[in-house]
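User: Run a structure prediction on this.
Assistant: Running it now.
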Amino acid sequence: MFLLRNEPKIVDYLRSMSSQFCLYIGTDILVQCMSECLLSTEDQRTKNTLKMLKDAGSTLVLTDSTIGEVWHHLRATHYAYVNNYYEIDQYMKLDIVEEIKEILIRSYFNSKLKIKPDIISWNNYISSFCTYSRDELCEYLINDLNLDFESSETTEMGIDIEKLQSLSNKIYEVKGI
């Protein structure tokens, strides 16, 4: 979170160290970038922060499992829109939009009501940055954010599967799952 606040002292510190960074970009950051897609370039804070880090020499990594999480998030958000907002889409007002918990749906309505009124549908909004295809989503994120892709095989290299499974089981026990 501190990375996204763009505090001058933190940004300067990160700039001085950024060529040594290898950052694995998580789902939350990627969804935030997607939600900013129709904002003006200067208002795309998350994307601009990633670009600044990349320009300073950082390695920004997108893993196969993260793509899966983003894709599932996109599909879940689509179903949330269809089930909860489709029928009232034309009646939405800005004061209601701010209460929507799904960031992409909130971004869609903000874009439609404030930024680009020519976005006439949810599908037009989604297609402005990708489709529901997992491969196209991956390609979009890699190209748009200039990320390095890491396959599951590479990510799992050097991981002791038995220790991983043991740790997973302990977490499940603690959570009561």
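Residues 64-84 form the longest helix (21 residues).
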